[in-house]
Structures are given as C-alpha cells and as structure tokens.
C-alpha cells in the first residue's frame, strides 16, 4: 500500500465520519425540538387550555351549539385558538421534518382523543372557519 493509497483511505474515512456527524447532529436537533414541544405541553397554562378545549369538545355533539359557546365566551375562544395554534406548529414541524418522526410516541398523552372521543381535525377546522 502506497502513501497515496493511505491518504485516499484517510480521506474516505474522514468523509464518512463527517457524514455520520452531520446525520447525528440533525437527529439531535429533531429530538431536541421534540423535547421543547413536550416541555411546552407540560406548562400549567397549556394543561389548563387543553382541559378547557376537551371540555368544550365534550360539551355538545352539535357544532352550532359549540360555535355559540365560543362566540359568548371570549376566554374559551382564545384558549381554542392557542390550542389550534400549537397543533399547527406540531403538524408544520412534522411536515418539514424538524421534529422527530416518532413524535406521536413521545406525545402519546396528546392523542387527540379527549375522554375517549375521536377529534376529527377536518371537522374541527371547519368549526374554526365558521367562527370568523
């Protein structure tokens, strides 16, 4: 093996280590971002907001009744908006790959099934459009 062969081998090993470092850095960023969302979800204010939104969703099966409740209760309206904003942040981060792909395992407690009832985001989005 000549000196040039050793230099080439060293360059290849260096390139592989650089690629591995880059890959691990990206994965660490995603995991860190996911943990930041978990920390945000653990704040008492957001826990209260999630509870209020779940209570609002369970208050009635009639969409019109829910809309009227939001129109009459400005605090609840802002709480629903904050919750939807958070869900939008998570979905955008997932779409663009800035949070860990297994986020649904980490955010298992945010299952979007409040008290056993499925939350249909399409219908929920239509409700929010109707509030404008």
Note the total helix count: 6
Overall body shape: rod-shaped
Secondary-structure element order, N to C? HHHHHH
Low-confidence stretches: 108-123
User: Biggest sheet, open or closed, and with what strands and sense?
Assistant: none
List strands and helices in order, with pairings.
Layout (H helix, E strand, L loop, with lengths): L2 H39 L2 H15 L4 H10 L1 H22 L7 H4 L14 H11 L1
Helix pairs in contact: 2-4, 3-4, 3-6
Question: Can you put this structure into words, describing what you see?
Answer:
There is one protein chain. This protein has 132 residues and is mainly α. The chain has one domain. 77% of the residues lie in helices and 0% in strands.
Write a concise synopsis of the structure shown.
The protein is mainly alpha-helical and 132 residues long. The chain is 77% helix and 0% strand.
Keywords:
about 130 residues; mainly alpha
């Amino acid at each position: 093996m000549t000196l040039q062969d050793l230099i080439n081998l060293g360059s290849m090993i260096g390139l592989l280590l650089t690629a591995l470092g880059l890959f691990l850095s990206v994965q660490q960023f995603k995991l860190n971002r996911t943990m930041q969302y978990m920390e945000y979800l653990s704040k008492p204010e957001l826990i209260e907001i999630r509870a209020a939104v779940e209570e609002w969703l369970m208050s009635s099966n009639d969409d019109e009744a829910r809309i009227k409740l939001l129109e009459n209760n400005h605090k609840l309206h802002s709480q629903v908006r904050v919750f939807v904003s958070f869900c939008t942040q998570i979905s955008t981060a997932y779409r663009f790959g800035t949070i860990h792909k297994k986020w649904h395992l980490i955010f298992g407690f945010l299952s979007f099934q409040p008290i056993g009832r499925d939350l249909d985001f399409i219908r929920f989005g239509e409700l929010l459009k109707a509030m404008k």
